[in-house]
Each structure stands twice: as structure tokens, then as C-alpha cells.
Amino acid sequence: MKRTQKDLLSTNLSRQLSDLGYVLAQSRIARKIPQSEVAVRANISRNTVSRIENGDAGVAIGQILRYLDVVRPGATLADVMMKEDNAVQAMDNLRRPRRARPLSDKELKEYDF
């Protein structure tokens, strides 16, 4: 019976790969780069890009590193997992709800601690 790479990994390692794929996908989306463009720049197939972002254990580390070099040039794998991506932070800030109007002087006094 054929076993897949995912079947051979522990749950913890599988989760780590999924987390890595999610972080890389968020970095790509924040920079508004389509999967097809990353694939061309990294010299990998679009299917491989999708597999990386889904945390597939069968993807070669070299392909992951080429993907990373396109999406976050100069970053290492350690940087990806340890440091927050500035582009993702900026995207999250844009999605955060904003006040519909400024507070009046009376309202400001009520909230003054």
C-alpha cells in the first residue's frame, strides 16, 4: 500500500508545514502577487505553489526557498516563522474597522481617564 508524505509525518510536523504555508500565502496575498506570477519568478509550477501554501510535505526544500525568495526577498525560513511581515501588518491595518466620525469635545471628556 502506497503511503503519502503526510502519512509519515507526526501531527506536530504536519501542523508546522501548514503554518509555514499559511504564512507564505499571507505574505504573497499582502503583496498582491498571484500564484501564477510567483510560479514564473521562482521557476516552479503553479501547482507546486499551491502545494507549498497548503503545507504539502512532498515539496522539495529548494522549491520552498525559491518561493520564499520571490515573495519575501532576503528573508530566511527562520525570519518567516519568527518575525511578522510588514506587508501583512499593513494589510491587516487596512482591514481594521475605523471610526465613522471624530469624537466631539463632550465625548472626548467622557472618555478622558
From TrEMBL:
The name this protein goes by in its record: Helix-turn-helix transcriptional regulator
Protein origin, superkingdom: Bacteria
Membrane spanning residue stretches: none
InterPro entries linked to this entry: Cro/C1-type_HTH, Lambda_DNA-bd_dom_sf
Domain HTH cro/C1-type per the UniProt entry, residue ranges: 24-55
Higher taxonomy: Bacteria, Pseudomonadati, Pseudomonadota, Gammaproteobacteria, Enterobacterales
Region (Disordered): 94-113
Extent of Basic and acidic residues compositional bias: 102-113
